[in-house]
Automatic annotation (TrEMBL):
Organism of derivation: Siminovitchia terrae
InterPro entries named among the record's database cross-references: SBP, Sperm_putr-bd
Compartments, record wording: Periplasm
Keywords recorded for this protein, A-Z: Membrane, Periplasm, Signal, Transmembrane, Transmembrane helix, Transport
Residue stretches spanning the membrane: 7-26
Record-linked PROSITE patterns: PROKAR_LIPOPROTEIN
One protein family per Pfam: SBP_bac_8
Alphabetized Gene3D superfamilies for the sequence: Periplasmic binding protein-like II (3.40.190.10)
CDD domains named among the record's database cross-references: PBP2_PotD_PotF_like
Protein name: Spermidine/putrescine ABC transporter substrate-binding protein
Length: 361
């Protein structure tokens, strides 16, 4: 399979189930508007609030060099942490990254500024499948950045069992040897899926059963790590893990004994997007930064360090074939068909919060 040319073919049926593309896009020429942004906004700063391990320093330095805009880099470890800080009135952030379901929540809470797409001509480089999503019709408040999945990574030198499923990780062979994502929606969602239910279930009985399943898994969990779970896989501290697909890929590059397993139940598929928090003091600079990132060569440079699936179609010609062909990053259609995007579960999130606290107490 050649995902370089056929990425759309392998993901279109799944993506179109949740995303209805109406934008006309193409491999347009790159453009930059950072210099003008810096002049329009007097202080020449950009306050970036983003996941750790998600933006190379050299890309930020290149943006600063080309525009004269100083980037202040701040990180969070989960969508929920980001939401808590912004909704609590943490002032001064100009740009952040939020996943699909979180944008839906933030829009409802009026926490986002509308984005002026006239300032982001490089949106033309994005694959139309990732535009006009159901969680933000017309991309009024968001611009796609990366997308990906959650997979199992296994050190074949340390594991005897043939791993095919999330359920296999409950085996006593993994006692005190798993690294898992520190993410309540993902882990509780896996519990839901093991019951044959949706990862977005709001049924109290389903959620409670997922809590019981995860408590049973606790003896096997050595660490929770959403930032760099690959580290414990590479150095041998963990035999296996529930990790981001890109982290599984990077772990396998550093330690060939680490292999990716696409769990037979399916998994979570996510899409991260740039957003501008309400009241951002330097919104013009934020839009200039997004436009800079969407240049094909810049976007591809980010994929070298953090090889998540890239919605920037024009960047694919600059991305290593090994990444484009790796199922941990660009998964086959049959796996995507069994997988789910998260949605806003509204008041049921309180039950998820309660259950997560009980699991980790």
């Amino acid at each position: 399979m050649n995902f370089t040319k056929d990425t759309g073919k392998y993901i279109v049926l799944f993506i179109m189930a949740v995303i209805v593309g109406t934008f006309a896009t193409g491999c347009g020429k790159s453009s930059t508007s950072g210099e003008k942004a810096s002049k329009d906004n007097g202080d020449g700063e950009l306050n970036l609030f983003i996941w750790s391990e998600y933006m190379p320093d050299r890309v930020i330095k290149q943006f600063e060099k080309e525009t004269g805009i100083k980037v202040n880099y701040n990180v969070y470890s989960s969508n929920e942490e980001m939401l808590a800080k912004i909704s609590a009135g943490a002032a001064g952030y100009d740009i952040s990254v939020a996943s699909d379901y979180m944008i839906e929540i933030m829009r409802k809470q009026d926490l986002l500024e509308p984005i002026n797409k006239d300032n982001i001509p490089n949106m033309n480089n994005l694959d139309e499948q990732f535009l006009n999503p159901t969680f933000d019709p017309g991309n009024e408040h968001s611009v796609p950045y990366m997308w990906g999945n959650v997979v199992i990574a296994v050190n074949k030198d340390a594991v005897k069992k043939n791993i095919k499923s999330y359920e296999d990780l409950w085996d006593s062979e993994f006692k005190n040897s798993l690294v898992v994502l520190d993410d309540q929606r993902i882990l509780i969602g896996i519990g839901n899926k093991l019951q044959g239910e949706s990862m977005n279930s709001t049924d109290t009985k389903v959620i409670q059963k997922s809590k019981d399943l995860l408590i049973d898994l606790l003896p096997n969990i050595k660490a929770y790590d959403s930032d760099s779970p690959k580290t414990m896989l590479v150095n041998g501290e963990a035999k296996a893990g529930i990790v981001w697909g890109a982290e599984a890929y990077l772990a396998s590059v550093e330690n060939p004994a680490v292999e990716t397993v696409l769990p037979e139940e399916g998994t979570n598929i996510w899409m991260d997007n740039f957003v501008v928090p309400k009241g951002a003091p330097n919104q013009r600079n934020a839009e200039a930064f997004i436009d800079f990132i969407l240049q094909p060569e810049v976007s591809a440079e980010i994929s070298k360090d953090f090889p998540y699936a890239n919605p920037n179609l024009s960047a694919h010609e600059f991305i290593d074939e090994d990444i484009l062909n790796d199922p941990a990053v660009y998964s086959p259609k049959e796996f995507l068909d069994k997988s789910e995007f998260f949605t806003d579960i509204e008041d049921a999130i309180l039950e998820y919060d309660r259950v997560w606290s009980e699991i980790k107490q």
